[in-house]
Structure formats: C-alpha cells, structure tokens
Amino acid sequence: MASLSTLPGPSDAVVTQTSQGVVLTLAYYQFLKSLIGVVAEKNDQIADLQARTQLVVKTGAPAVGDVPAGQFRVIKNTTGPTYSLVLNDDATLKSVALT
Are 78 and 59 in contact (CB under 8 A)? Predict the structure, then answer.
C-alpha cells in the first residue's frame, strides 16, 4: 500500500530557477513522488472495482476462468438467457440464480 509522505514545511519551500525551469527541493520531490504513488494505487483499485461490477456476458455456463479466485461476478448466460451471481471459492464455483 502506497503511503503519502509528510507535506514539507515552509522552510523546505525553496525552489531554484534555472534555464531548464524550476528545480524543487528534495523534500518536495519526495512528497510529490509519494502522492503520485498513492494516486496510482487508487486508480488500480478503481479499475479492479469496475471489473468486478461489470456484467460478464458469455454463451454457456460460467467456468472457473471467468471469475478470479476469491471473487465474484454477475454473469449472463446468453443461451438461457439466465443471470447468476457466481463466486470462485478456491476453484469451486458457487452460484445463485438472479431473477
């Protein structure tokens, strides 16, 4: 889990103007780097949540490969069509029909 470092104080707020642009102090660089890490981790968590909440549409019954271990998915079997909530419990699928 990424953690956010402490925001530097006013005495750390020294920047240097160069012909290349502005150079931040090491304290601000470390803070911004940690902030980027936290944002990236949150983006990954959001993407994972979106994947879990999307309807999986397939022809035929759900297979172990359709649901990651320890997770669940809502699956539409287009041959029915039927809908089910499917849990992958250590490579054993458990499902409940949705009506």
Answer: yes
pTM strictly above 0.70: no
What contacts 24, CB < 8 A, 6 or more positions away? 15, 32
- Tell me how many domains the chain contains: 2
Best CA proximity match to 70, nearest among 88, 48, 47: 88
Helix (H), strand (E) at residue 75: strand 72-77
Quote the domain boundaries for residue 92. 54-99
Beta-strand pair 56-58/16-18 = unpaired
10-residue mean pLDDT series, the chain (99 residues): 64 60 69 86 88 89 93 93 95 94
Which position has the token pair 């530097």?
8
